[in-house]
Design a protein that fits this description.
188 residues, alpha+beta, four-stranded antiparallel sheet, 7 strands
């Protein structure tokens, strides 16, 4: 694991020992060519929840490590954290989109960071099927017409903004996406 990735994970401060262990296991013998670390805190009525997403490009794969914390499943409600590693072969990535949002575009100058960036990567790691009963359009028909539905790919999606995350985070996502774009474009 590269020294800068290790530093970024420690700086994020979200269970760095756990995150580092999971990342080292996922990266294995490969080299991290680029990384992006995004830690977020969310608030709801009863609790504060933290989560972190780490994206890593190796020579052959895009890794997404997502960590969440919360109450355990036992009666004691022990605090726990979970880390999920999603691995997509670079050759399996179908598409990538980077949306640049600029507030007050008339004030924008070349070299300024965008106000927000949204990275979406389609790699078919997960898909969701939404089903509902099919109908024929006749309101009085009570025949079984089976089901209809949609199959939706759950893309990797990361959003950063100048206001919430700072300029360093926006620029880091720009840099990461450039390496990923070259990696998926260079394959073919």
């Amino acid at each position: 694991m590269s020294h800068t990735l290790d530093q970024a994970v420690r700086f994020a401060g979200y269970y760095p020992a756990l995150a580092t262990s999971v990342l080292r296991s996922a990266i294995g013998a490969e080299t991290a060519r680029a990384h992006f670390v995004h830690a977020e805190t969310t608030f709801d009525d009863r609790e504060v929840r933290r989560h972190m997403t780490v994206l890593v490009v190796t020579d052959t794969r895009l890794l997404r490590v997502h960590m969440d914390d919360g109450a355990g499943h036992g009666a004691e409600g022990v605090h726990e954290a979970s880390a999920t590693v999603e691995t997509t072969a670079l050759t399996a990535i179908r598409n990538m989109a980077m949306t640049h949002v600029v507030h007050e575009p008339e004030q924008y100058r070349e070299g300024d960071p965008p106000t927000e960036l949204v990275l979406a990567v389609g790699g078919s790691v997960h898909s969701r099927v939404d089903l509902e009963p099919a109908t024929c359009g006749d309101e009085s028909c009570d025949a079984d017409h089976g089901y209809t539905g949609t199959l939706t790919s759950d893309d990797v999606l990361v959003r950063v903004s100048l206001i919430a995350d700072g300029e360093d985070s926006v620029r880091a996502l720009q840099d990461f996406s450039g390496v990923l774009q070259n990696a998926i474009g260079a394959r073919g």
